[in-house]
Each structure stands twice: as C-alpha cells, then as structure tokens.
TrEMBL record, chains A, B, C, D:
It comes from Brevibacterium siliguriense. GO terms for molecular function: acyl-CoA dehydrogenase activity; flavin adenine dinucleotide binding. Keywords: FAD, Flavoprotein, Oxidoreductase. Pfam families: Acyl-CoA_dh_1, Acyl-CoA_dh_M, Acyl-CoA_dh_N. Residues 249-398 form the Acyl-CoA dehydrogenase/oxidase C-terminal domain. Homodimer. Its cofactor is FAD. This is Acyl-CoA dehydrogenase. Belongs to the acyl-CoA dehydrogenase family. It comes from the Bacteria. GO terms for biological process: fatty acid beta-oxidation using acyl-CoA dehydrogenase. The keyword Flavoprotein applies. One of its GO terms (cellular component) is cytoplasm. Residues 14-130 form the Acyl-CoA dehydrogenase/oxidase N-terminal domain.
Length: 410, 410, 410, 410
C-alpha cells in the first residue's frame, strides 16, 4: 500500500493550487452573478468567467486530469485523487474549468472504454476539447431505480434504429443546451436475465421526442452552475442502431464500470469541500464572541472541530487506499472499498458541513456562504449512484460471504 | 398534570381538520404557483388563494387562536397546542390563513402585553383584523446576536425622537411590503447593566432610512410564502419617542416574554409537520419496491418508521406538559421545559424529515414534495431564538444550580 | 390525559422518600458487603439488612405497591409509576425491600390474574407476604426466543402430569434457593397455530430433574442482589397437570398480558436510576477541576447535562402517558406506547449513564460508584422482553397499518 | 505514504497466525479457568498455559516484537502494527504470551530510552526475558489526573533518597506479585513551571510503605488475566535517588514519549478485537432465525455489519498512516494523527462490539462469549491516557492554530 505523492503529482498540485488561488477563488462570486444574468442561466458554458478559466487551466496543463490512458492526462487514481481534492475546494467552478466535472467525466470514460471509433470521433473528441457537454440519463421518477431491474425506460429495436420511450429525472447538466449528448439507460429486453435486460444508448439532444421540461431542485438549489438536474420525457425517440454503446444487454455492466472512478472522484472532491468548511468553521469561531468568550474557546465548538478533523483524516486515507486498489487490482478488486467510501463520505462530510453551518449562525444557511449549498450537495451524495442503504446491504452480504468462506462455512 | 382535550378544543379541532381537508391541502400548489406569478412574490397577502382561505378561516372561528385574553380567542396554551399541531401540517398556508403565523403572532402578543393604548390602536388592531403585517428585527449580521449584549444596533434619544442606526438580517416577513410594522431591538444604553442596555421600538416600514435590500435564503429557499427573510439597513431612522415599547432598558425582558409562547407554537407546528412527513414516509414505503420487496417490508425502513413514532410521541407529551406549565405556573416556571422543547424539537423533527426524504429517493429533495423545504425549516429552528448550544448551556447551568440546592451544596 | 399526582400518591411518595433517605441509601454498602459474606451470596432473602428494610417497608405501608386490585395496594399505573421512579434510585435494594422487585412482581400479577384458587393459595399468598421468591423461565440459549415460536422447551402431557424437557438461561432470581417457584414457558403443541403452541406451567424448584447450574453474568456482573440469572436444565421434570396456568396453548397470551405492567415498572425505575446518575454527574462535575476550570464550567460537560435533562423529561412524560392509557383504555389500547417506552428507555438511560461515567473518570467504571453496574442493567434492558429490534419492527408495522387505514388505502 | 507489508512482516504474520490458530485460541478457556484456580488469580505469570505459550512464542521468534532497536525485535511501527492487530484477536492471551502486553511494553520502552545502564540491567533485562513484570502508576483517585498539573503524589528529596507519598489507582498489573517494578509519576517540585513539576521514579514493589489494597473493577470485570488494576497507597516510601528516571522535572516529557507507541499498539489490538467481533456477529447472524428469516437476511443487522466494516476500514488505514508517520517523521510529527486514532478507535470499536452483542442476544453480555469483556475494554480506552475530551480539546486547539497559520491570521 503506497499512496506517496510522486513528483509529477506534486508539480500538478502546485500548479493547481496556484490556479485556485489566482483564478478560481477570486472568480466564484463573479461566476455566480454572471450565470444569473444569462438568458439561460443553466448554460454555464456561455459564461465568460468560465471560458477564461478553462483557457487558463488548459494552458497550465490542468485539463482532463481525470482521464487515464492516452486520451487523457494518463494519471493513476492515486495521482488524480490528490488533485481532485484540491479542485473540490471550489466545487462550482474548478472541476468544470478543468474539464473534470461530472457527469461529463463519467461519459468520457465510458466512451473511451466502450465507444466505437465512430462514437469516439463524433462525441468523445469534442468533449475532450471542451466544446460539447453531456448528460447521463439513469434515474426515473416512477420506480426505485437504484434497483436496475426496475428501470422502465424502453429501448426497442425497429429496423436499423432504436425507439426510446420513458421518463428520466435528476439528469444533471441537462438544462444546459450545450449538453448535446445524452447517454440513456433503458431496457432492450425486460425478459432477459436480471442484469442483461439493460442497454445504454446515445441520444443526441436535438432528436425529436426529447423534451427537457424543468430542473429538479435539491434542497432549494437549482444548481445552475452545472446545468441543473433535468426532467426529461422521451417519446418515440428514434436513433440509429449504431448509437448503442456496447451490445444489447450490456447496459448494467457498463454502468457498473462507469461508477467506480466516478465515485472516487466525488469522494475526493467532497473531502476538499469539507476541508474548506473546516477552515471556514475555524476562522468563524475565531472571529465571533458570545457570552464573554470567543467561539474558538468554547468546548462544544472545539469538540466539533476535533471530530471534523478526526473524521476527515480517516476518510481521506481510505479513499486513497481505494484509489490505490483500483490502480493495482482493478475496480472489481476494490469493490468493497469503493462501496465503503461511497457510504462513509456523505455521512462524514454532511456532519462537518452541518457543524460549520451551526458555527456561522443563521448566515451559514444563506447565500452569503457556500456552506448551505455544499450541504445540499453532500446530502445528494446519499442518493447518488444509489442510496446508502443499497450499498450497505450489498457490502454486508459480501462481508457475510467472505466470513463464511474464511470460517469454512460457505 | 392534565392535558385532556376539553370540549371547546375538540370542536375547534374538528372545525380545523375539516378546514384543512377541504380548503388548505387542496390549495397548496395553487398558492405556491400564484406567489411566483405575483409582481412581488413575497407579497403573500396579495394572493387570492390566501384571501379566500383567510375569509373562510374567519368564518369558521379559526382566527387569532394563538392569542390568549380578550383580544384573541382566549385559549390556554394546552388548548392552542393541539390546534397548532394540526395547522402545522400545512406550514406554508394554514397558520397564515388563520392569522396565526410568526412573526405576527409574537408581535401581536408583545403589543397586547406591553403596548400603550395608542400603540395598540395604531398597530395591534389592524394586525388582529389581518389587514397589516409585521416583522421583528433582532438578528444582526456582524455579531453573535444570541448574546443580547452583542447587539450593535443603536437607538439614541434625540429630543422627542429616537434615532436608529444599524443592520439587521434574517428578518422574517420583511420582503412583504404589507409588513408595515417593524419592531426593532437595539441598544439605548450600551453602558448599562448587561440586560438593561436594550430597548424595543416601533419603526414604520416607510420611515426614511429603512432599506430592505434582499432576502436571505435558507438552504436555497427564499420562503416567499411568509415574506422572506429581509436584510435591512437602518440609517438615521427617526421615530417619535412614543414608539418605544415599554421603557428604556426593558428590551431584553420584553424579548424574553415574547419567546415563551412563540417557542411552543413553533414546536407544535413542527410536530404537525413531522407527522405529515411520517405519513408520507409510510405511504411512499408502501408504494415502492426494490430488490424484490416493498420498502415497507425492509428492516432499515421499518426501523426509521418506528424510531420516528417513538421520538414524536415523547416530544409531543413534553410540549403539552410545557404548555400546561405555562398555563398553570407561568412562563417563568416553565423555563426549563420551554428550553427543553426548544432543544428537542428541531433534533427530532430534522431526523424524521431526513429519513422521510431518504425513503422518497432523490425526489424527496426536490420541489415535488414538501419534505426538503420542511427540512430547511426544521434546520433553521436550531438557530431560531438562539442556537441550541446557547439553550443547552443555560439549561445545564440551571440544572447544576438545582442539584446543588437539593444536595445542600449551594 | 391527566397525570396529576393525587393525595394518596403524594403521601406514599413522601413516606417512600423518607424511607429511602433514612433506611435505603444508608444501607446500600452494608447490603452489598453482607451478600458477599453469605454462604450463598445469591440468597439475598437471607440478608439481615434486607429483612430489616422489609419489616420497615411493611410497617410504613410501602408493600406490594405494584399490585392493583384487592390483593395488592390497589394503585393505578399512574399512581405506582411515580413511586416506582423513586424506588429506582436504589435499584438493588429498594424494590426488593418493598416486595416490588422483578421477576416476583410479574409472577404475582400472573398468578393473581390467571391462577386457580389452589395455585393462588399455594404460591401467591407466600409471595405476597414475602416469604417465598420465584423466577420466570422464558429465554433459551439455543434459539432467538424473542420469537415465541422458536421456543424449544417441551411440556408434554403424560397421564395426569406434564413432563418438561429443555434448557433455559438468564432466569433472573434462580440462584436464590428461596425462589421455590419457577414459572416455565414451553410448547405443549408445536404443531398448533403460531401463538397457540405455548403454555405456562408451575414447576416447584425442588422437583427432580431441575438443575440450576450457574449464573449468567451481564457485562461482568453476577447480580447477586436479585438472585443472579440462572442457567437451568430441565430433564424429565414431572409436575401435576393442575400446575398448568390457564389452559394449554394460552402461554403466549398470558406472557403478553404479563409484559405490559412489567415494562412500565422497568421504565420508571430506570428513570429513577438515570436521575440518580444525573445528580452524580452534576456533583462530580462540580468537584473536579482540569486545565484550570471546574468540569461544571466546561462546555462539553454542560452539553451532556442539558441533553440528559432533555432526554429524561421527554421519557418520563411518555411513560406517565402510557401508564394513564393502561389505566384508562387497558394494556391493549396502550400497545404502541408500551412498545415506545420499551424502545426509548434503554437508549436514553444508557446514554445518560455513559456520560455520567465519563464525567467520573476511570472511577466511574469501578465498584466505587453504582454507575457501571447501572449501565450494565440499562444495557440488559435492550434485550429484556425481546430486543429493541423486535419491538421496533412490530411498532413500525402497526404504524404502517394505521397510516393505511387513515389514508383509506388499507 | 507507504504501508506495504514487507517480506519480513509477512513471514512474522504467517508465523503469528499459525501460533494463534494452533496455540492461542484453543487455550483461551483453559487459561481463564486456570487463573480462577490459582491461589492468587491475578498472578497470571504462574499459569501453566501462559508459560507454555510464552515458550512457544519465544521459539517462533514472536517475542518482544513491540520493541524497536537492538534490545527488541527492531520492527518499525508499520511492521509491528499489522502484527499487533493479529495478536489483538486474543486480547487476554496473545499479547502477554508474546511479551508484548501493556503496561510492560511501555515500561520497557521507557527504560530502554531513558534508563541508566544500571536501571536497564536491574529492571529492563529481566522484563525483556519475561521473568519480571511491572506496573505504571499515574492515575490518582482524588484529582482529574489527565491534567498532569493536578497530580498530588509527592516525591521529595531527602539526602540520597526520595520519599514518596500519595495514592494511585487503576494501576494495571499491580495485583500480580510478580510485578516487582513500579514506575511512579509524582511531583518533585509543585512550584516549578507547569510541565516541569513532575518526575518519574522506580519503586520496587517490596519497598516498605507500598500497599496494594484491592483491584479496581471495570464494568464488573477484575481483569485477572493482566494482573488487575491496583489501588496503591504509598506512605513514606523511601527509594535511592538513583531510582529517578531521567532528571527531576522530566516526568511529563518522559510520559509523553511513552504514550505515542502505547497508543498505537492499543489501537491496533483493538482493531483485531473488533475484527473478531465482526466475525462473531456474522457467524451468529447466519446461525439464528427469528420471525421466519435468518438474522443475516434482516435489514437492520445487514446495516450493522456494513457499518462495522466501513468503520474498521477507515480506522485501520489511519492507524497505519500514523505508524508510518511515527516511523518517518517521529512521534512529535505524528502528534495529530496519534490523537486522532486515540479518539477514533474506542468510538468505532465500542460501537461494533455493542452491535455484535446485540446480535448475540442476552448471551452476548455473558461470560459465554468474549464480547462483553471486550466491550468493557473498549470502554476503558475512552479513559486510557486521558479521556477523549482532553484529546479532542487539544487536537482542536492545534487545528485552530494551523488554520490561523495557513490563512496568515496567526
């Protein structure tokens, strides 16, 4: 187990930290204000601030860091993890400025791994350049879609085309008209074996029958900075058969492959977000006095600060270990750890944000600090890629199996 | 200790329940939509739906129930508590429809108790009729205002007037232009004894120098339904000396008197809100299936439902006991219990809402259910009238004192 | 809902409090030392201290208070609850001194309610006088006996006798040879309907085939003060058919009837125990200084004290409400509340004891204070009459049913 | 950061695992029974089982693994950590069998680091051979001794001797008469600067004036397997001045140096203990059925298993990181992490044990499983080397300082 930071990562980290200090943090408020003033406030790609930062990130070599292999920066998960944490300190601006924001990252990985040459040329290349955006349409309003067998979206073969019908919601990024690419999960064969019913398919946003009706809020936030969370109806949407990603029935397996790296990126960025909250909590506690004592001298608040540090330290090393396992034994070998960090991260980060808010008083819940919107984000992580409860159930069953094997009782 | 529901309360409860079923619940969505369409979406008093409901509530005798004495419905706290819980099931609509919404309730109580005849005539009467609204300006952005000695707002005598300078924020209701009355807490004598420095004064909203600049969000919500939470600058605001409520230096004592009933109302309404969330959680759990089993047959979710019921049952009886104490030994005699429910309610209700959201999946965080906005409200309760930590500290010190007295070690 | 303390209860409470102050508290250490010195340290009935206290309690009319009806003191549950709390402050001594200690109380109730005249004469009368003790044999080592259908103990009819085979453990009181009466739960018909398989039968302790082999410890404690927790083998134990309590197949129903009052007594005594721990926590916090400040001036400890008070206040009123429901609508009508307090009490009390221990430093875990042994007792409450999880599951299913009925979806 | 297991550790681990399987686990019950039968049940060194195991451990090279440098096995903290976890699976037997049990380990480290040649020869050598045992006398009954300035024990110079007066308790190992060496912490100069008042001194157990009066219980356990926790009075105890360890006033600094490795060993062994509990929980859940389903198919129990795994994984990597820091930047550089694991370990391990107990039913609290005694041990860890609250306070203050430095506000 070796999570040392090598020289290349160290250099990138310095570069990124200077980019954050000089460009990202100072631009946050301007970016938010600019979005509100846009004709379509979800079209963050149209923001001048964003365009300026993206140019700067590219120039500094802070571009596509998330993507392993030749098409991306070629970093390992351990290498990228450290950088993702830094970028997570400015959740709304930095990842997008570096072309490292979800859901584009997952979609690029997916196309890089499973796309045909044609699909790569048409969709992956512009995304890597940053001239096109995308969304991933998985969650459905009518069913518990954490159980993939519940998915009701139909993808039916009709000649040399597929016809798609159904409804998806919480489709992050979809309110941005520049999200030209929709990757859609649905069932090609509802009667096949449990995990062979699903397929994934490319749907160009401008295909007739695609209707993005509204943005789903999360705890009052519409998340314009990343294109909102669309509610999309698909009515007799017809796309060429060649738009299928992988083969029929491979949708579930592809989705699983997509989730590993996505999760670890989410976790590392969330740790960065939590570190920023701890800084804010300390600095606020130092600057306020109540009942004759600075908040930073009051026992309960010291307890929160300590507990925050203890939680985040445990979490970070486990995320790094997970990254290292993914690098060395692959996503499958890191299955338990990937689930473990998916379970542990939202809990720890939400707790820390809650306390940071409390130290800030009512202001902590307002638009004047980024704590409340970060809390909302942390809260959504308890649903992202399936609710905690699904992951816990699965992890526990694997633990039981392992214990049976070890005790010879299997 | 007798919390029985008497006949009058029982009748009112039936009336209120029928009002809720026939008028309130069906109008919730319409009300929200209407607000968004208003020129000033914070001016909820202009809503047709609201006006219709207020007329109906008045007709049914469901008006000013919160106010004891001749000026109001004359109910005891125990009597009103049961009714407040019912109205809390529709937090955004029912209390306002019944002229029982904060902060007007607290302001009416305050004027009824401490106002001069002139003040009552000018301000209390129209508020009781429902033709005027108000706000209470206590919290300040620059200091930990839970410690009243920190308040920086100045109220300075100048001839037969007072001149007010300072800034207040999170002033609920203040974005509604019909909130003509602002009751402002500030310091008339910063050098007086700790709890004699503060005074309260009436400031008509249209006084020159009053500038309501924006609404403070709470977890992404702007709470238009109750007039938002204003950020207000007071610059050389001049009001007649007769606008003072009580005498100079009585502001803190008056604020304390105001808080008791306000807290118990908050708590009872929050219990109603939690009961609605439990219903929603049960109904959702019954309607969704994952991994071959209805959610309502899954152990973890059953655990949440049970835990929710256990928590709310404990909480309700303590709130009722507190109401009974207030009725029988007065607010001062109920001091510990008032603080106890102020501490216990947000914790229990927030927990229940969190679980209800989790059972609803991502949708639970969205605008399609009232759970997320209710969560935001429950979260603000941990700050309302001072953060939990202040109340706990105070309650603990009183407990220690009591224990010392009992053991003869005082 | 009326939990007022009436005059009779008030008088009894004063009497009991004076008994506690003058006789019980001063005798605790002496009692513990005397037990250790006995030939059989589990034979608490042989203790001189205990005999002295029992005589005094009888003289003061503090005897059999738990038992309603003519055979006992005839108190309601609300009346007894207040007294049980007071006696719970000296868990090891007061209840037994007042002939109000489990498991005798439950057994006396059971015999009073379901026993034949002959059974009452032979067993109930001496128990009411305090000259005989008893045990209730329900839990089995080999199965999850919270599910009554799992019970493996066999009670087989053979002519005019029943023959009993099986093993029971955690049989409180059984190490005391004066526990002449064992009430045993087993199956008379394993093929009957789920809740008709079980019967209860009287087994005199000296019947051949009864073997009490050892005492089960709980967290290191052997609980000599109440006769330990026996591990008992029953091998071809033959008793007259007339020893059956109620009819064949009524064992489950009788057990249910037995549990309601038992639970509420446990809860009230546990509250008394927790109150004593809060007093100890406060007094210790006042007497120790660390890092320049008294513990009672340190924020985290103040937080614990406040939280303890808030939890115990909620719990007590719910227990009182439950008692009131049992008095007015019967045990069945109070089913949800009885389960709710069974779930809530151990959690609250264990938490408080844990904090009280922490305030005492390592000494809090030792024999020098009663906190650690009280913690062990609170911990066992999470198993008593079935683990929390069983109660939560059952309560939640009833809640779902109720919600379905209310929403018309049943 | 590199926690890889090197070849030497891997070999030792295999050796240790085989020792555990073949010798340790099979001997646990026999050891416990043998202790009870000894004249002095605290004299575990007299146990035949122990002597057999110690010989075997020595033969296998599993001896003094804890001690770095020439005098011990020369392992790094990272290397030893993995082995300590394995030995922790049999807390009562393995560490002592390997001469790696507290408090001897800390005392040997202390003597190796700070002892004179004479002290080493007289005390360290026999301890390394395993022919002598020791105790460390720090905690006092009358004061909060986590604050070293509170220590009341006096060590006064008198000619060429020191005279010691005071009382210590919870002195682990002291009931074993073979604990010939007592290292005592007291004040040589109560008026010196805060952390220069204390000194440490060697007191041979048989010195006149040393009175070991009784063993302090922890949650009902007397911990005979490691010599109990003595209550020791020191009355005019006279020892040669050459018995001082280090110089006068260095006691606090020496104590600090002693704690780092001790803590990490405790943590790793506690993780081993928790892993054993998880195994037991899984195996029990697989073997019991309630209400028609195996416990291992019930949601709440699956949740506990998952949560246990997630907690232990986070904890282990942080402990390993801490070990690595101690190896690379020293105990001082690892200060925050050492405190973090001291805070995190008891919380996680206690939680896991509590759930493992719950899955076992009442039996889980009894002597039939090692869960209850392990719980008691985990509970004591919240006091060992100072209560959690002290560590949290200190960690938080350092965090605040660091944040101030980073933000340039120091």
């Amino acid at each position: 187990m070796d999570f040392s930071i090598d020289d290349r990562t160290l250099e990138l980290k310095k570069e990124l930290e200077s980019f954050m200090e000089e460009f990202v943090f100072p631009a946050e408020d301007e970016f938010a204000a600019e979005l509100e003033a846009l004709d379509n406030p979800y079209q963050w790609t149209a923001s001048k601030v964003m365009q300026r930062l993206r140019a700067e990130a590219k120039k500094r070599g802070l571009w596509n860091l998330f993507l392993p292999g030749e098409e991306g920066a070629g970093l390992t998960n351990v290498q990228y993890a450290t950088l993702a944490e830094v970028s997570g300190r400015s959740r709304t601006l930095a990842p997008a400025a570096m072309n490292c924001a979800a859901p584009d990252t997952g979609n690029m990985e997916l196309l890089a791994q499973f796309g045909t040459e044609e699909q790569k040329k048409r969709w992956l290349e512009p995304m890597l350049k940053g001239t096109m955006r995308s969304a991933f349409a998985m969650t459905e309003p009518a069913v518990a879609s954490s159980d993939a067998t519940n998915v009701e979206m139909r993808i039916e073969r009709d000649g040399d085309a597929y016809v798609i019908n159904g409804r998806k919601w919480f489709i992050t990024g979809a309110l941005n008209p520049d999200a030209e690419l929709l990757i859609v999960m649905g069932k090609t064969d509802p009667n096949a074996e449990r995990h062979k019913q699903q397929s994934q398919i490319i749907v160009p946003r401008d295909t007739p029958g695609v209707d993005v009706s509204r943005s789903m809020e999360v705890l009052g936030y519409s998340d314009k900075f990343n294109g909102g969370h669309g509610d999309i109806a698909f009515t007799d949407v017809r796309v060429p058969a060649s738009n299928l990603i992988g083969g029929e029935g491979e949708g579930f397996a592809i989705a699983q492959a997509r989730l590993g790296p996505g999760r670890i990126h989410h976790c590392m960025r969330a740790i960065g977000m939590a570190e920023r909250a701890i800084s804010a909590m300390c600095s606020r506690a130092d600057s306020r006095t109540a009942f004759g004592k600075k908040l930073s001298d009051q026992g309960v608040i010291l307890d929160w600060i300590a507990e925050s540090r203890v939680r985040i330290e445990q979490l970070r090393v486990l995320v790094l270990k997970t990254a290292w396992l993914m690098d060395t034994v692959g996503n499958k070998g890191a299955h338990t750890e990937i689930q473990a960090i998916k379970i542990a991260t939202p809990a720890a980060v939400e707790w820390i944000l809650d306390k940071a808010i409390q130290v800030h008083g009512a202001g902590g819940l307002s638009q004047d600090f980024d704590l409340a919107s970060s809390f909302a984000y942390a809260r959504t992580l308890r649903f992202a890629d399936g609710p905690d409860e699904v992951h816990k159930n699965s992890l526990a069953r694997r633990e039981l199996k392992r214990q049976r094997a070890e005790s010879g009782c299997d």
